[in-house]
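User: Could you walk me through two proteins back to back? I'd like the raw sequence and the structure tokens for each, with a short line separating them so I can tell where one ends and the next begins.

Assistant: Of course. Protein one, sequence then structure:
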Amino acid sequence: MRSLVLIAALTLVSPMLAFAQSGDEAAVLKVEEELRVAELANDIDTLDRISHPNYYAVNQNGNARDKAQFLELWKTFKVQSIVKENLRVKITDDTAVVTGDMTEHNAGIDRMLFTRVYRRERNRWLLLASMQARRSSPMAETIRAQSTTRGGLTLEEVRVGSSCVVVISRPGSNDYSVTPCSTR
């Protein structure tokens, strides 16, 4: 009988725990969105309210800032748009980690990966730390040499950054192989 009561209690509590978890994730994502909107509007009051007193960040250029420097930056720094994608939230106790892709449009376009750490204090999530890293665009860096055909095979040299491969394919077929470029 005791195990039956335990099973019934777990059956009732488990959905509530899952809901609480998704509620926490939603609350963290809400603050993440508040951050995005506040940065676009240079809303220092909101940035101050949602950031932890011990906030610390490193941006895509390697510049480190504490909370006071972060707030000072956003008094004058203008961004035309911020688009966030592929957001993932991991929560452990009172700490949440949000990771994702972000594109900022300003004088140019910055594509970045980011990680933010939030801390729950007094039932609200505060931004504790942030790190951004510039994401290179492989398509922008790809250089394709002229294709050559030998013995019915097409050879194409493809360079991405300092990496190089040769793609060997047979026209009209889905067969291909990839090998490192020769060091000649």
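----
Protein two, same layout:
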Amino acid sequence: MLFRKIIILLLMMAIMTTLSACSAVKGSIVILENADGTGFTMEFQEWSAKNKCELFLNKGDEVKIEVVSEDGEIAFSVNGRNGSEPYRGNDLSSGMFTITVSETDDYVFAITGKDATGKITVKNLDGKEE
């Protein structure tokens, strides 16, 4: 009887471990940083998870953000390590916008996807027109 309980317990643990592995990252994301350190591109395919990139910005820097949303849901935020939050958006659609940071800081650009396919490009314009 004890042997049977141990076997059942082990089977239940194996099933729970397998099911928890199913909730891991789904799809794929590739993040490419610009060689000059002024930005990055995040490309994702049927991706469900969270990820982030960091970028050092000076007070007054203007950052261009381009979103290409092909499918799924995308949430995106920009937060300074000192507590500022220049941007937060949920269920983004395709488009382009700029933000200007109010203080010199390391900024975290966080993305959350739910079955998301698309691309986000971030570029520090540093006061230069493109």
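The chain has one domain: 25-124.

Let me know if you want the two compared in more detail.
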